[in-house]
Amino acid sequence: MQKREQWTSKLGFILAAAGSAIGLGAIWKFPYETGANGGSVFILLFIISTLAIGLPILLAEFVIGRRGQADAVSGLKKQAPGKPWFLIGWSGLIFSFVILSFYSVVGGWILSYLGRSLLFQLSNLGDADFAELFGGIIGNPLEVILAQAAFMLLTIWIVQGGIKGGIERASKIMMPGLLIFLVILMVRSLTLDGAMEGVKFMFVPDWSFFNFKTALIALGQAFFSLSVGVAGMMTYASYLSKSENLSRSAVSVAGLNILISIMAGLIIFPAVFALGYTPDQGPGLVFIILPAIFDQLFMGGLLMIIFFVLMLFATLTSSISMLEIGVSIIVKNKFDRRVRVAWLYGLVIFLFGIPSALSFGIMSEPFMFGYTFFDFMDILTSRIGLPIGALFTALFAGYVLKKHEAETELPGQTVWFQVWRALVRYVAPVAIIVVFIQGIISIF
């Protein structure tokens, strides 16, 4: 039996954990939710929600994960022997499996766009042509399945290399690359004539959007963008040495998530306003409106390549964490099985994801409650699975872990420890229940 791996550095852990959080939620969903919900007020509520709700739950996963020093199921069994709290780990495996099955479909779309941009096939198209192109790509059965398979192969290849040789090494390349590409695109967007209207949209409050609905959407965005609720952060923290400061790591991850979300907005909204579009374009903002914007800019073809490489990096850093959750639980302490388990488990996820890939073409008929298979899997996880997982994680950290047990993972932080414990015991559970109830209502 091999010894359990550990991160080689604190930076490697932070970049991997931040990469898990900074996926399509920051680069794709945050901009379109901001655009649809008033800009600056939504951003303010998102930041408050991230710090008051998301960060305490993130730190709870870190505490539980490092204390367990094992996969999510085994680690929880060690900390609460004879009790059913280990089901949090199995819940994480199930819902991360489902998430990755449809998340890989979107990853495939990004690969399709990246391939076309590398061949300069996205130039000189009008708005209607970009909309037609997007519909053509997601409705083509052969292309979406092959692209989904290619994305899963990339994900599996990274995870099968282990923590040091796979996930950490890839994160140390992709996360700095993501930041560099963000800066390049942000500078170009901010130098457009009329770009300041987009900046005003993001930072000058329109208080008419300050209402319960906006607050709830911002809370949901903050909650889900940190990748909590599926034991992913618990899994990553289990590979962390006892010498690392968990609070600083959690603040670093949450801070990077906020920073990159805002940077993504500073790429999109200045360009949207400068070129005469409206910000409330919805989910099509990235795949239809942005390519149309880049097409009008000097060296737009190169900018488009950079953008879709950025999207690929962001998506991959999240997908590898979701695959690692299940791989670590199945492998347990038999680490010589990692390669075989990663490939077989990844193959099963790919096969389960095929109906999601076909949900915009030959399987576009409603699957359940009027939703396609893709949409139903998304709703099942984001509105039911993740809130349940996060709720029980908060309850475990706040009520099952004894005070002195939690303090051993957060030594010398008396004031911050008291604040965190109060938030995770009282505030976070209430907020999660509100999001969960609203999510259930919205399904029907």
Automatic annotation (TrEMBL):
Recorded superkingdom: Bacteria
Key word Transport present: yes
Main location: membrane
Location of the protein in the cell: Membrane
GO cellular component terms, A-Z: membrane
Membrane topology per record: Multi-pass membrane protein
InterPro entries: Na/ntran_symport (IPR000175), SNS_sf (IPR037272), YocR/YhdH-like (IPR047218)
Alphabetized UniProt keyword annotations: Membrane, Transmembrane, Transmembrane helix, Transport
Residue ranges of the TM segments: 12-30, 42-64, 85-111, 144-163, 175-196, 216-239, 251-277, 297-330, 342-364, 384-401, 422-441
Name this polypeptide is given: NSS family neurotransmitter:Na+ symporter
Natural source organism: Planococcus koreensis
